Task: structure prediction
Amino acid sequence: MTFLTHYHGVTVYLVVAGLVIAESGFVIGFFVPGEIAVVLGGVLANEHRVNLAVMLVVANAAAIAAFFIGYAVGHAIGPWLLERRLLRSNPAVERTRQLIARRGGPGVLVGRFIAVVRAIVPALAGLSDISFRTFVPYTVVGGLAWATLYTLVGFAVGRSYKHLLSTIGAWSYVVVGVVVVALVVNHLRLRSRHRRAAVGPPPEPPGE
Result:
């Protein structure tokens, strides 16, 4: 990804937008680091290779468009995608489906900030019962917050971006771990509640 630091102007805008859209719009975020591209866009703005205001517009537009495209892809060919080997056996897919099923729109918003989950959230939302009307506000708010945050962080750290990128990667895994633990605990709690409901109340003692 550091190849981006050798370019400036329109090339940077196009590459950043393309990587962000490819990450979530076409479900290939397992290989395309969208957040790293946005951070580097901010770094290059700090070095005056691109304009910060334009970079913010590009990053925000791409972040929002990526989720809209991903939603459409999931709605159109979601079942076929889930049968592909990469997604069929990937535990992140099942965790994300649980997140969306339980949280709905807020799950889409939270998933935006988790690296691996972000790649498949919009497609799984399109495949789920979440209506497009519900999907839109969470996508817009999340996209604006995510793209603005990482662009400004990149702009703020400037040449120290290499340390920042390694930190972002580490914290992404931490967030994923926390989400997984929370889902497991909630699943166990619900299963215990269902077992108690299935057993029913203890029989009353016979009257005298």
